[in-house]
Amino acid sequence: MAQEFEEQEYFVLHLLSVSAEPLGAGSIREELAKNGMDLSEASVGRLLRGLDGRGFTTRVGFQGRLLTAAGEERLSLLQSEREKIVSTGAFLEAVKSREREMLLEILVARRAIEREMAALAARLRTAGDVAALRDILDRQNALLARGEPMASADGEFHEEVARISGNKVLQSAIGIIRKSGEGASFFEYIRTKVGSRVGADHEAVYEAIAAGDPEAAEVAMTRHIDNVIRDVSTYWKDHVRDLPAGLGGRKSRTVRNDPR
User: Fold this and answer.
1) Whether the predicted pLDDT of 116 surpasses 90
2) Predicted local confidence at residue 86, as pLDDT
3) Using alpha carbons only, what angle is made at residue 116 by residues 115 and 118, rounded to the nearest 5 degrees?
4) What domains does the chain contain, in order, with CATH numbers?
5) What phi, psi does 65 have (nearest 5°)?
6) How far apart are the C-alpha atoms of 148 and 140, rounded to whole Å?
7) Confidence of residue 99 (pLDDT cuts 50, 70, 90)
8) What pLDDT is attached to residue 219?
9) What is the rounded distance in angstroms from the CA atom of residue 82 to the CA atom of residue 79?
10) What is the mean pLDDT of residues 50-74?
């Protein structure tokens, strides 16, 4: 039901984004029906009032509604999530037929590099750098509070730590490693599936960098990646058999748990 509502929300926001003038509830209802979403007048009214209440749309007298700046941001987020659903579906299908060692090797490489970057960032950070990291964490926490994916903020946080470190060789190395592995949205899926508090580790890394404590920053980043490694291992052991079937249009395969 939540996914169905989000699809309706996405469609209405997109419809308003491409309209040069306010759209009335009747026009919106017609367009929804044309696209297989046959809602009653009351349902459309509730949907629109909900969007108004969240600041995504604004009513212009009797002319209809316009998209707000907040609505444009929400639409952009929903578009991004739709793209992630496609790639995540491909991942979930592929993960059934591959060994966990690939992800673990990538994470081990990330740990070696990112702990050094965190230590450098703690030595070199400026007040502006600390503020930038805090802004990313605040946005991450806001996404978590709303129950929305925070993979984009996760990537931003690690990229910002890399930038602050100032070491272009390490930046290039971690860029290659991160691109060779699965995206942040996949790790977020895994960590959520095993019950970890996604995003909590970043606060410890931030606090150490903000305090200018290289040793604490290195320890915090190491602990963060270690937690992801633990969650990936747990996921393979306890949850691989529970992956949704039929993703990507192919029949699911059962993967035997690694006995090691």
Assistant:
1) yes
2) 52
3) 65
4) 2-67 (1.10.10.10), 81-249 (1.20.120.530)
5) -125, 150
6) 9
7) low
8) 96
9) 5
10) 92
Question: Using CA atoms, how far apart are residues 39 and 43, in angstroms rounded to an integer?
Answer: 6
At 3, list the tokens. Answer: 């996914």
Whole-number Å distance between alpha carbons of 38 and 80: 25
Read off the tokens for 137.
């964490």
What mean pLDDT, rounded, does the chain reach?
80
What's the Cα-to-Cα distance from 190 to each of 82, 146, 241, rounded to whole Å?
A: 18, 19, 13
Instruction: Tell me the two tokens of residue 116.
Output: 């050094």
3-state secondary structure the chain: CHHHHHHHHHHHHHHHHCCCCCECHHHHHHHHHHCCCCCCHHHHHHHHHHHHHCCCEEEECCCEEEECHHHHHHHHHHHHHHHHHHHHHHHHHHHCCCCCHHHHHHHHHHHHHHHHHHHHHHHHCCHHHHHHHHHHHHHHHHHHHCCCCCHHHHHHHHHHHHHHHCCHHHHHHHHHHHHHCCCHHHHHHHHHHCCCCCCHHHHHHHHHHHCCCHHHHHHHHHHHHHHHHHHHHHHHHHCHHHCCCCHHHCCCCCCCCCCC
Look up residue 192 and give its two tokens.
């959520």
